[in-house]
Amino acid sequence: MAPSLDQTLALVAIAPFLAAILAPFIFRFAGSYSGWLLAIVPAAIFWVLLGLVEPIQQTGAITAGIYWIPHYGLRLSFLLDGLSLTFALTISAIGALILVYAGAYLKGHPHQGRFLAFMLAFMGAMLGLVTADNLVALVVFWELTSVTSFLLIGFDHQRQAARRAAIQALVVTGAGGLTLLIGAVILHQVGGAWEMSALLEQGALVKASPAYLAILLLFVFAAFTKSAQVPFHFWLPNAMEAPTPVSAFLHSATMVQAGVYLMLRTSPILGGTAIWEGLLVVFGGVTLLWGALAALRQTDLKQMLAQTTIASLGLLILLIGIGSEMAINAAAIYFVAHALYKAALFLVVGVIDHETGTRDITALGGLRGKLPVTFGAAVLAGLSMVGLPLTVGYLAKEEMYAALAGGDPTQILVLIVLIAGNGLLAGVGLAVAIKPFFGAHVATPTPAHEAGPSLLAGPVVLAILGIAAGIKANTVGMFLMAPTATAVLGTPVESHLKLSVDPTSLLLWLSVATWALGAATYYYLETVRAVLRRGRTAVGWTFDQGFDAAMFGLIRFAATVTRFFHHGRLEAYVVVLFSMLILAIAVPLIALGGLPAMPAFPPLTFYEWGIIIVAITGLVAVLVAPSRLVAIVSLGIQGLAVAMLFLLFGAPDLAFTQFMVEVLSVVILALVMTRLKLDMRDRREFEDWIRDGTIAIAAGVSIMVLLLVVVSGPLDMRLSDFFTQTSVAIAHGHNIVNVILVDYRGLDTLGEISVVMTAGIAVLALLRRHRANKATTPARKARKGAEA
Prior knowledge:
The chain is an all-alpha fold and 788 residues long.
């Protein structure tokens, strides 16, 4: 029996997490081959999703899900359209190859099973994010990507640099997650739905709302922190502390692309306005140039690729900001192109590092004879990064230039930025693909030798796919670009993608200018690097240092606030607590004119007067108690008077409960206090009497006035009737108060019991410590005397 669509989508979302649970056990039996075995899961997901391409082309989108919290209308729902399908296919395909690679790259590592589990959980979080239809589910998966990336970046937790990088990534992206949560709640309030599929139709309503600017800024902040836009880009290069398989996956198809996906997904809702275009185009353009220049300054191959990822993310954000059909087409095809060549190049760098012991570009050379297959994969991926014909990178570059060929001054400025950024990226691509393999052979820490099939499968397949996708341009346009653009724009988009080189086309000459700039950058790479490094030294400040300063300031501020509010003086805590209680009750009542009229005092019977006299007697006894023990017992008199009131007004079960609580409270309190001097009286200064008496009277009057407001309103008996009708039938208890405490408020009561128990344990520990200190004091004095 074939699974239903709901079951299929649920399996796509759940399967990586199930595999993550099993990964350590599989590694225990399969060893380094566990990568191949676990890769079956993302490969199967890819195959299932591939079978949905044609149905999505025909219907536009597929939605499915189950009710999550029905009372609030929350469903764990999934949406598969052209946009989510393109991302999901890329994540699963690259994920399968990287799992195979990771099994060989970490061969012999004692925690390889844990690493593979983290990778699968990371993959599952990203797949859930791009397929989630429900906003709450999207936020949950968004945060899961932050948590799992924290585990992966800090995998080598014994190194301080890895720990710092993991914490930095978690702080920056976690801050974006909080703004996304707030933005999602506001968007739900404005749009009236939790499902993205419904909100996509409410773009005009959201843009007309006064909350539009707040929603836009919250979502943009979340996307910018996740996708490393300036000034939040600094965490991404530091994430290179993670093992190379993590870098390849994180930089190509997963976490850093989450912000790009969010902007594409919300484009129909939030896009098309001047502030949307201004924010995304300006920050995207700055990030593109910043990342490209920073890449040229590096000598570490992984750092060079990491900085180019920042640049590419800026380029994608810029294209989304432009928002035209051609620009969205270009963003869709560039996402695929970048994922293929960036993952391949990262894996190539991992092979170089693994087989030579270094990834410093200045310490490498002449490796093409020693690593011929790696060299071939590097060249093919580098060609796509440069954007030469026959590669998918060429198609993406042509499409983005076509989007800005209108001749408008703003478009011309943006086009210049694109050409400059692409040219610098091309120079870096040439350096990574050529420098380590050509020139005189350089001795490396480990004698260079070709890697095995598990390490080579990923970079070779991905590099070949980058060429194959360029040759099969029409197929890529029909099955990936057009459905993605259709999902983003909300209108049908026809594929026009084809591989052609027209010497008379302006686009070709713009590409030639890009290639020329790339070649010049590569030729003068050493000079450019030296100039950029001198400039960096002259500035003497980085965003990374700014983060450290901000975190240091935050910690100092938190410590100051803690010292101010948590000073350890219990008396001050009580004064502040009751003062705030008085203000919380009195200010709203006075400001809103809610003070009640004083009710007429009814005539009382002799036994009612008796209860009042008992309560007053207990109060006076507490105030004038000659010792602590008398004060404790006097407190019980107040509780007994309240219990008698319950008994008098027809609530014997409540009165019985109150009697038990009061008796036990007095007994337990007296037992606990036995280790203190109960025959003493706490002497207090007159000023303390005046302050505390004033606060006590004000608090009592405030509570009285509040109760008068409550009882002066109409009495709603629905809840009382419900408890009366169901306490026996459902909870099988005749004592309604006990039923409420144990059944209807079971978790609340458990929490109260836990608090009391914790407080009791703390008091007991303090008393035992006091007795231990008292017992050791004579011995300590004797020892000091002997030493003297």
